[in-house]
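New here. Invent one.

***
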Amino acid sequence: MSRLEWAKSVLIEGDVAEGVAALKRADGPELQVHGSGNLIRTLLRHNLVDQYRLLVFPLVLGEGKRLFPDGTVPLGLRLADSRVSRKGVVIGTYEPAGEIVLGSFGQG
């Protein structure tokens, strides 16, 4: 078994989706993913994401790895919260809202 440096860490061996689903069913703290695009894509494929916190920074760096790559199943999101930091970082908290509802992106 690998040594885990962070307190309250849980090593998932075998099928990642099954391991995360078991953690979600258990009584424990909130599960978070920071900066692991591969893990996020696995969780998306298995409908294991309850909330998205997307941070948009006021800068352009060029190309990078897409968070939602080709082949991602389309999903509607509901804005649960939003705020803007003093430095202009837009922080949006979204929750899955089922199928995409076509309509207007207008205000209101």
The chain is about 20% helix and 20% strand.
